[in-house]
Design goal:
The structure is a homodimer of 460-residue chains.
Chain A lengths: L7 H15 L6 E4 L5 E4 L2 E2 L6 H7 L7 E5 L2 E5 L7 H5 L5 H8 L3 E3 L19 H11 L11 H14 L4 H25 L5 H14 L3 E2 L4 E3 L19 E6 L1 E2 L8 E6 L6 H20 L6 H18 L7 H6 L57 E4 L2 E3 L2 H4 L2 H6 L6 H4 L7 E3 L2 E5 L4 E3 L8 H8 L2
Parallel strand pairs in A: 5-6
Antiparallel strand pairs in A: 1-4, 2-3, 4-5, 7-10, 8-9, 9-11, 12-15, 13-14, 15-16
Helix pairs in contact in A: 7-8, 9-10
């Protein structure tokens, strides 16, 4: 449990957040922090991660704690550690001490929570022990798999409104996560030419994150098979002609995330075909970031990436035809089958526990178009939103060998020309971009993404 | 999912294990592998860990798979990956392919499992999604928090009998885990003098484990506050006069664990008081290992450690009186309040999901003595058992400041003499020891534990 980095400014920030929420709803709210999830037996647990909603309003990763908010009034419910726990876990801060740190008006033992649940809304946490308790106390089914309804839905929408744009305290944490992530990627690049398998590069990257007393915000992707979008294998050997795709992000001690991808050549130097495609992806990345500013629709950023990629592939002779028309036909999704990015905050896909409530503007729904269905964010951008921009190019066998897709797009692709690019299985370039009134700020800008600059960092 | 490291010898090993189990029971057995546990939202999961019982008999960490065993006949139940999953997770091995690798006689889709559940025993897995499914299909409450009963209890006892001693394939994995853990500790020692906080040493250690494509078998303890037995904080700064206690172990890709502790001086060199206590703990460690052989009671090993520690503390003038009498009065537990060790295998506390069924010989129960209650293993040792030996000395404020304990033991401790040892907050030395007919083999012997050898590894 982290309690050392607290200050009056934390209390002020938390009060402001709770006040904002109070201005949007007129019912009490109870938020659970959650508890440990067991790994292979009950006492061997995964590292504790507090619920993001709890973290947002309570600020500290307290296990098994509850806050109740009503009209700006904050009650903290948690039990003081048992005397015997001091042997195993040391002297822990007491309830009253924590209450002061987070600006709670009252601190009570957990047993009193049941007296204060009436009419309260909540959000399901992820661990079974806690959502069972939530369901019992509130006397209705509260489950992470069930979309919230009634006042829980109203609460979810209000929380989305508050969390959608970041305050200064959040940005300070997000910048810390970004800075450590930048260092992790540099370490991964520097470790590559002497590494034999993917796992060794991953180790160099995660060591930077662990050394800063942070954790990864999601399971790292460090792979020579970038065409597998969520590849979590690390045993492949590193071959000189291959690319390495690393999607690795840090999370600060109080839960704020970064999410960065770079792709580099294992030998240090891109082949000419790799460089050609890399520059297409980078052009899409740069065009998107140049277009970001408050008021712009994120879907238009996505479509811009699609168009720039299609254009680039036309120029390389891989696509035939006109970029705009290719995108209208979703042909880009043959090679860029995911969305251009997502919200980033306490969660790497921020508030994805609420389904599309955060990602999608009210009354909008996921498209069933091949080229749009995976878009996780569809809203007009607002100052203070943090989004990822992560265009890519992949040769996914499951797509390119799909008989239906292949026949549908057969005449739009120069398959023979494409066969010259077999050493490009997957490239992605991803940065974390803060929306401002005037434009944007790339929080991860300290990590180079120009092909030659990346080559310099890898060396070899 | 790992499928590359399989061979005919794996199939033979798995068949032998299943045959042993079949010889002990006369009812069918269904074992679930389990599924992912969500972290902050359903799609952001903790790294998958298959149930240890499944791993023991099926050999591969397959998510969401089930095996049914009856009289040596093995059925595998799992679904082939959906076509759409190839985009995100790549081409996965198909059911039939996996069935062959693990020596299954039949492979069926999951939907057919419900036709084969009658009269079957099981063991609860840890993730809620799976134990819900177990409970539904078997039509009884199967929960990790509930001790097994009826045929489930019979199964648990049979599994304990089979898993209590390790076969050659298991030992090969356990040796791999031990070897990587040894390297991790050496890396941690080498990183200490240039590190500023605990997290940097932890990073150096875990990087070795990650680079070998392994994971930690439990949350690492790397702390200047060794007196907190399960300390999972890593933010403290490293001060030259302090000790660093590191309890870190690797787990192989198919789940076999190591568990090693070393304590070293942050400056590289122990103070004379630190060295004095270190040598007492090491004497206990060495005496225990010298005594290990088949037939010896593990409780006697524990009591030997207590006695050697008490003797050492008498010699140092900290305890007054006679070592045997001090141990009879549990005075040793003032400074050595935990057990001498535990079983080690697929779980770092092997089979602790079954409570004390594995650790305690039938008809034995935990003692309520202050000096014995935390002993996790109480059986006569048998060839092929792997145990930890981990004596320690700690100055735990919660114990030493406890008014009852302090008055009870007041005349047995020279408190003034003790006050000269304030720079020894916690020391533990832990190795993994295989019981043989003739004696024992220390799997982690490649990691020095003599004070001067540890000083050499730290340097400085």
């Amino acid at each position: 449990m982290l309690i050392q980095n607290t200050s009056n400014s934390l209390v002020d920030t938390l009060r402001q957040r709770r006040q904002k929420l109070a201005s949007l709803i007129d019912f009490p709210v109870i938020l659970w922090s959650g508890n440990d999830s067991p790994r292979n037996y009950p006492a061997n647990v995964f590292p504790f991660r507090a619920s993001s909603h709890f973290l947002y309003f309570a600020g500290l990763p307290l296990p098994n704690a509850v806050i109740r908010l009503e009209a700006g009034f904050l009650e903290l419910f948690m039990d003081d550690p048992k005397p015997s726990s001091a042997l195993w876990h040391g002297e822990m801060p007491r309830r009253e001490e924590i209450a002061e740190k987070i600006g709670a008006d009252v601190a009570k033992p957990m047993v009193e929570l049941e007296l204060s649940v009436e009419g309260a809304a909540t959000i399901a946490v992820q661990d079974a022990g806690t959502w069972t308790q939530q369901s019992q106390l509130l006397d209705r089914l509260v489950l992470p798999q069930i979309q919230p309804a009634g006042i829980d839905l109203e609460l979810a929408k209000a929380i989305v409104t508050v969390r959608l744009t970041h305050d200064e305290a959040a940005l300070a944490e997000l910048r810390k996560a970004a800075a450590v992530t930048v260092e992790a990627h540099k370490a991964g690049m520097a470790a590559t030419t002497s590494a034999k398998i993917e796992a060794e590069v991953r180790a160099a990257m995660e060591a930077v994150i662990i050394a800063h007393n942070m954790t990864t915000s999601y399971n790292s992707i460090v792979t020579v098979h970038g065409e597998v979008l969520h590849n979590e294998q690390y045993h492949h050997s590193l071959q000189p002609g291959d690319l390495l795709l690393a999607d690795v992000g840090a999370e600060t001690e109080i839960g704020w995330a970064a999410d960065v991808t770079r792709t580099w050549a294992i030998s240090g130097k891109f082949s000419s075909t790799q460089r050609d495609i890399y520059d297409v992806v980078l052009a899409a990345h740069d065009a998107c970031i140049a277009k970001i500013r408050a008021g712009v629709e994120y879907e238009d950023i996505h479509l811009l990436a699609c168009t720039v990629i299609a254009e680039g592939l036309v120029d390389l002779g891989i696509f035939k035809g006109n970029a705009e028309e290719l995108v209208e036909m979703d042909a880009h999704a043959l090679f860029f089958p995911h969305g251009i990015g997502h919200l980033l905050g306490l969660d790497v896909h921020d508030m994805e526990d609420l389904g599309d409530l955060a990602g999608y503007e009210e009354k909008r729904e996921r498209s069933d178009r091949f080229g749009l269905g995976y878009l996780r964010l569809n809203r007009p951008l607002r100052p203070g939103m943090l989004v990822t921009i992560e265009p890519g190019f992949y040769q996914v066998p499951a797509i390119l060998n799909d008989a239906n897709l292949r026949s549908k797009y057969h005449n739009l692709v120069n398959w023979e020309r494409l066969s010259q690019f077999t050493d490009v299985r997957g490239i992605r370039i991803e940065d974390d971009v803060l929306v401002t009134t005037e434009g944007s700020e790339v929080l991860t800008a300290a990590l180079p993404n120009q092909a030659s600059a990346v080559e310099d960092l890898v060396g070899g």
